[in-house]
Write a structure and sequence with these properties.
The chain is an all-alpha fold. It is 77% helix and 2% strand. The chain is built from 14 helices and four strands. A two-stranded antiparallel ribbon has the order 1-4. Strands 2-3 form a two-stranded antiparallel sheet. Helix 3 crosses helix 10. The longest helix is centred in the N-terminal third of the chain and has 27 residues. It is globular. It starts with a helix and ends with a helix.
């Protein structure tokens, strides 16, 4: 690693730590309980969008079924909390580990395909799980969803910290920041660069002797784990799950967020999720046709700035940087 690259990585780590500290301090700002609740819910969605963006950024694959892992994480945690006496740590491990394992096994089949074929396969799997949860009322309450009563204490803390916006935002924000930092470091690693090479020219990488299938499956399972974590956090905060979490439209919203934010950047999908949710909330107060406005916005960004909001921010930063050099 060059000195310049090492300095950049150190700077990114410092910024991530600063972001975590900022996330802990946000609840003390006078932003109001409604806005705090909105951004808390937004962090769960940002984690989901990040899992979708990871596939686009690393593998060039568009998934219409990533709500499967978000929903499975939430439902597995809910069922275990409701029907077992397992330790909370084990419940969280299973709620994230089982969808991750399923994602890896599923990837061994679906990542052999690309383009529309891959998207349709992920969509089909997602709808299978959605229909199972929707129809199996004895298991998870069907379309009525399922409420969960959390234990009085979790990990030695009062469970209310997971259902209070001020504390849950700090927890989920720190986890989101840690995920983004981890993905950045992975991208800079040998394996991350190898995955990029597979995305750009899989045949050449295979010719060099690398097993491209397992690497692509690993990235898919990693994105599955991130999505499942978002689902677990959603359950802990809301103490409620419904089949809508598994529906393909939720995957579609996450995909839109990733595109708006800029899937070419690690930070882009999370940025797009937060901007999308705040814009949706603001437009919803003005007109009932907010979806049409968001649709036009998506078209404009896709055509005018395919790199998304993160790409726009990068362009402006470069202009500012070169402008200062010109002045000097």
């Amino acid at each position: 690693m060059s000195v310049q690259s090492s300095m950049k990585t150190t700077l990114i780590c410092v910024l991530a730590l600063s972001s975590m500290i900022g996330g802990i301090l946000v609840p003390f700002l006078p932003i109001g309980p409604v806005n705090l609740t909105l951004i808390t819910q937004g962090t769960f969605t940002a984690i989901m969008a990040t899992s979708v963006g990871l596939l686009i950024h690393q593998c060039g694959l568009i998934s219409f079924g990533h709500a499967t892992f978000f929903g499975l994480g939430a439902y597995i945690a809910a069922l275990l909390l409701k029907n077992t006496t397992l330790h909370f740590t084990l419940i969280v491990a299973l709620a994230i580990g089982l969808p991750t394992l399923f994602g890896f096994l599923m990837a061994l089949v679906v990542v052999r395909q690309t383009g529309v074929a891959f998207s349709m396969l992920t969509l089909a799997v997602a709808q299978v799980f959605h229909e199972v949860i929707l129809k199996w009322r004895n298991l998870a309450g069907g379309d009525d969803g399922m409420s969960v009563q959390l234990p009085k204490t979790l990990l030695g803390f009062d469970s209310l910290i997971f259902q209070t916006a001020s504390t849950m935002f700090s927890i989920s924000w720190c986890l989101l920041t840690a995920i983004l930092l981890g993905l950045y470091l992975f991208n800079q690693s040998r394996w991350g660069r190898l995955v990029f090479a597979i995305r750009d020219n899989e045949e050449r990488v295979r010719f060099l002797g690398h097993d491209t299938l397992l690497l692509r499956a690993f990235v898919f399972s990693l994105s599955s784990a991130i999505g499942a974590l978002g689902g677990v956090l959603f359950l802990l905060y809301n103490a409620y799950v419904s089949p809508e979490l598994l529906h393909w439209t939720y995957s579609g919203f996450a995909l839109v967020m990733a595109i708006v934010g800029g899937a070419e950047f690690v930070l882009g999908p999370a940025l797009g999720a937060l901007v999308f949710l705040f814009t949706k909330d603001a437009m919803g107060d003005i007109t009932e046709h907010w979806q049409a406005i968001m649709g036009v916005t998506l078209i404009v960004i896709t055509v005018w700035r395919p790199a998304g909001l993160a790409g726009i921010a990068e362009t402006q930063f470069k202009k500012f940087k070169w402008g200062r050099r010109d002045v000097q």
